[in-house]
């Protein structure tokens, strides 16, 4: 059984078919990339998996369960976390505070119960702290821990965005353009983080990325999308050499 399975998924926005009868599956433990020109539907696929949008048709299963039957705010507690193409952090809060807020969102359904059972809330708070400190150490963010997001360089914010998602301890991590806007060295670092996340944390990664150099190095499999539909699927080398993919890229 695949960890994530999309079957015949379609989503339209008015007259635009953003995703058109797409089927794909991601296996536990792999790093899988979605590639394709701008407007191909990549972020829309992420938005459906994270339940921001509901597909018009088709099914999405995570760990064998129908994800579309879960409430949108339950996706995180099911074990799915994501980063955003445009970083979404609280600018006036510190790195630590942003990661703790990410954990609280993760536990949203527990809050009332926590308020009623103070002892349990303390235990939860300790668990949140531990999870957050662990991620700060893992991603080498100690030096930035108590700094405000607004003062941090873009490359560091990208790592904090990654940390916020990781702190929820997901089984599946969705990365929307993890290397966009990064320098060559920062992209190289991002590559090592992604490899460590897979190897040391055992987390499955589904990413959208334009940097085919990075995709070729970290991904096991790639699916190329154009106009919301699959163009080609296979190893990075197979997909890059596929005539339909070459044509789609040259055409934009
Ligand atoms: P990508 O991430 O591959 O660049 P998107 O998934 O963002 O592409 O967009 C796919 C298509 O769906 C585009 O034509 C885009 O304009 C459209 N689209 C995406 N989100 C919305 C929305 N909320 N409302 C209307 N159209 C949208
Ligand atoms: Mg996008």
TrEMBL record:
What SMART domains does the annotation carry?
A: AAA (SM00382)
Do you know which InterPro entries this protein is assigned to? AAA+_ATPase (IPR003593), ABC_AA/LPS_Transport (IPR051120), ABC_transporter-like_ATP-bd (IPR003439), BCA_ABC_TP_C (IPR032823), P-loop_NTPase (IPR027417)
Task: Using the record's annotation, list all stretches that form the ABC transporter domain.
Answer: 4-252
Question: What is the species of this protein?
Answer: Pararhodobacter oceanensis
Give the matching Pfam families. Answer: ABC_tran, BCA_ABC_TP_C
Q: Which Gene3D superfamilies match?
A: P-loop containing nucleotide triphosphate hydrolases
Any one cellular component term from GO for this entry? plasma membrane
The lineage's top-level taxon is Bacteria
Q: What protein name does the entry list?
A: ABC transporter ATP-binding protein
Q: Where are the transmembrane segments?
A: none
Enumerate the CDD domains for this protein: ABC_Mj1267_LivG_branched
Q: Which GO terms describe its molecular function?
A: ATP binding; ATP hydrolysis activity
Sorted alphabetically, the keyword list is: ATP-binding, Nucleotide-binding, Transport
């Amino acid at each position: 059984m695949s960890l994530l399975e999309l079957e015949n998924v379609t989503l339209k926005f008015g007259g635009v078919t953003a995703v058109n009868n797409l089927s794909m599956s991601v296996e536990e433990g792999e790093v899988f990339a979605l590639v394709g020109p701008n407007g191909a539907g990549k972020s829309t696929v992420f938005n459906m998996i994270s339940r921001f949008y509901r597909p018009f048709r088709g099914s999405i299963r995570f760990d064998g369960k129908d994800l579309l039957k879960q409430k949108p705010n339950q996706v995180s507690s099911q074990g799915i976390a994501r980063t955003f193409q445009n970083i979404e952090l609280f600018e006036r809060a510190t790195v630590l505070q942003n990661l703790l807020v990410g954990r609280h969102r993760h536990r949203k359904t527990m809050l009332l119960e926590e308020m009623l059972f103070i002892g349990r809330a303390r235990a939860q708070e300790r668990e949140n702290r531990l999870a957050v400190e662990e991620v700060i150490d893992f991603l080498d963010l100690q030096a930035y821990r108590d700094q405000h997001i607004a003062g941090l360089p873009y490359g560091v914010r990208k790592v904090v965005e990654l940390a916020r998602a990781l702190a929820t301890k997901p089984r599946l991590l969705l990365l929307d353009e993890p290397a966009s806007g990064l320098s060559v060295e920062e992209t190289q670092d991002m590559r090592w983080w992604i490899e460590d996340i897979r190897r040391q944390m055992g987390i499955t990664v589904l990413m959208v990325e334009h940097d085919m150099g990075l995709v070729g190095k970290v991904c096991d499999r790639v699916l190329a999308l154009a106009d919301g539909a699959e163009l080609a699927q296979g190893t990075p080398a197979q997909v890059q050499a596929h005539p339909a993919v070459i044509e789609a890229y040259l055409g934009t």
